[in-house]
Structure formats: C-alpha cells, structure tokens
Specification:
single chain; about 350 residues; 4-stranded mixed beta sheet; 4-stranded antiparallel beta sheet; about 25% strand
C-alpha cells in the first residue's frame, strides 16, 4: 500500500501519509501509516483480500534461522543444526535467475544474494539493523544525511577489500537507465536518484551517494527516512566490485564462477535446475559467527515431492502449499511466518451512478 500511490483521493489520507514520512521516529511513522490505512479501508471502494504468509515444516534440530517479512525469505548467517555434520538441507522451487545485485528482482535471487553477499547492515531475528559491512553509522539532526563507516576487515571472496566505493558504484549502476533495474525506484529517497534513473539527468554525480574515502560512505536523502538503516539490509543496496563486474563481459552473476561474494557463504556449486551449494566463506569478516559449513539446496518443483523428501529425512525444512496445511497444522514442526504484503480489491467506480 505504501510502496505506490493508489487511485484514491482523500485530503486527510494524504495528510497522514505526509506526516508519516516526516515523523522523527519509526514508531511515530508506523502509527501514522496505520491511521492512514484505517481511513483508506473505511472510506475507499476497496476490500482487503488476504495478507501474504507462508507455512512450513522445520526439523526440531534446526535453530536460529532468521526469517524476513520482505525481500529474502531467510538468512542463514546465525543458523545452526544440532548435529555433528553442520549441513542444512533445503529445496528450491526453481532455478536462480541471477546473482547480479543490479538486475535481481525475484525472491529466489534475493534469497541467494542475502546469504552470499552483505550490505551495510544485516537485520537480526528481532528486526534490528546490526553492523555488517558498516561497523557504525550516524544520522544528521534533520535526518537527511547518513554517514556509514565501512569496516576495514571486510573482503570480497577474491581477496579484494570491500570499500565505500563499491557501494557508490553499485547504487549508481543500479540507477543507470541502461541497466534497466526493476528496483531502481527503491532508491528514490536519495537525492537525484529519480532524475538519474529516469534520464532527466545524465550526471551520476548528482546522485546523493558519495564515497568520501575508502571507508566512509555519505548518503543524502530528499526526506527523513527513519528506517534507512534497516533498508540497507535489502539486496538492492548491496555493494559490487567494479573491477570484477566489468571483467565479466556482461556475464556477472550468471554462474558461480561469474560471481564474487562478500557475505557469510559463497556459491560453491550452481547446477542449473538441479543443485546449489552454499559453503562457508572463509574471507567473511564475521566467519566465527557462521556455524553451518554448507547449505544444500536441491531444485524440487513439486510441493508433494518436497514433502516426501522431508518425511524421509532428506531435507530439514519444507514449504507447504495451502492444501497441505490441514494435514500438518497440529505437528510440533509446523510453523508460519507473515510477509509485509497485503492484497486489496480496489473497485473503479468512475462514472457509476
């Protein structure tokens, strides 16, 4: 609802949305957004259909998987299995389209990118933005300028240091019209981002992201965004190694070998429509926090086939389709999560009498 403007006109609603955007704390923002949503439901020609969620089964020995309400379904940085072999066995519903940060637009790509790469922050199980590529950050008094200090022990899997320039390059590459990123709009709160992405300005220097030096990134916003540190955990804002990307001749992110990683795992195996294996990244700055040695993901397109693998102890977690929920809802291994998505039926009553 808040990601795009609806065909709905109400001055009080517009006022609440504006107040939410200008609020000085996340709590105040969410309160105003909630008031706006209630007003919308009470007065618009719309009806909520359902809120997106997922149901799944998870073995009792699996723990500390962080599940998200947006973007990637899960992070395995802190995950563990109470077994001697530190392997987590999972399935994928289909192949991974890309590991290119600027071109990813689907859940499976975000899933793999979140676990093999890392942004300025990483959100933990409590929904708190924790230090990642940035060891610290500060927000200006007016909330429009954020300064991130990049940790000096961060490295790419090829040994190159991760620097502030990797973030500046990545964000501007995503916004470059020729890249045709479907998620460039997520950066529009950054000064000059919209104009550059839409071709109204051809000068990337007008975009409000700048590497002050190798370890200082400055971001200037059009407005206060209180959750900007949490947003930095979203894949679109991850860094890219310019030298590596430009050496791939357009193949960046298309295979395990055509990718470079800065996250808790690397993609050690990527067999199209078959198998992906994530292995612990020995160059990762926080590798001591990573308990799993490997995450094995078998491509299984049929839900019932995946459930059979779970029941025969060949995989550790399995997603359920709606027709399977009643059968397993009383199991101790049955779990659910919510997604930050609500679907509405909006009626066009123009011209109605």
């Amino acid at each position: 609802m808040y990601g795009q403007r609806l065909s709905y006109s109400n001055p009080d609603y517009d006022k609440l949305i504006e107040e939410a955007k200008l609020a000085e704390t996340p709590e105040e923002s969410f309160k105003k957004f909630g008031e706006a949503e209630k007003l919308f439901l009470d007065s618009a020609n719309a009806a909520p259909l359902y809120q997106q969620g997922t149901s799944f089964l998870q073995k009792s020995y699996v723990k500390d998987v962080v599940r998200y309400t947006y973007g990637s379904p899960a992070s395995y940085k802190w995950a563990d299995v109470d077994k001697e072999s530190k392997q987590l066995n999972l399935t994928l519903a289909g192949d991974i389209p890309t590991l290119d940060v600027s071109k990813a637009s689907d859940m499976d790509s975000f899933y793999m990118i979140t676990n093999t790469m890392e942004g300025l922050t990483r959100v933990d199980a409590s929904g708190v933005a924790t230090p990642a590529m940035a060891e610290s950050w500060e927000q200006s008094e007016d909330g429009k300028t954020w300064t991130f200090k990049i940790r000096k022990d961060a490295k790419w899997s090829n040994g190159d240091p991760v620097t502030a320039r990797d973030f500046e390059y990545s964000w501007k590459r995503t916004l470059q019209p020729e890249t045709a990123s479907q998620y460039g709009y997520v950066m529009y709160d950054i000064e000059g981002a919209s104009d550059y992405n839409n071709g109204k300005s051809e000068n990337a220097d007008n975009v409000g992201v700048k590497a002050v030096d190798d370890y200082t990134l400055e971001v200037k916003l059009n407005r206060r965004v209180n959750y900007f540190d949490q947003l930095m955990s979203f894949c679109v804002f991850f860094p890219q190694n310019q030298k590596f990307v430009e050496s791939q001749d357009g193949k960046n992110g298309t295979t395990a070998e055509n990718s470079v990683y800065n996250g808790p795992f690397t993609m050690s195996t990527w067999k199209m429509d078959d198998l992906c294996v994530l292995s612990k990244n020995q160059n990762y700055w926080d590798k001591n926090a990573v308990k799993l040695d490997t995450v094995n993901l078998k491509v299984v397109k049929d839900t019932n086939a995946a459930i059979n693998l779970y029941e025969t102890d060949q995989i550790d977690v399995v997603g359920l389709s709606s027709e399977n929920v009643d059968k397993y809802k009383d199991s101790k291994e049955f779990m659910t999560t919510k997604k930050a998505e609500t679907f509405f039926l909006l009626i066009n009553n123009k011209g109605a009498k």
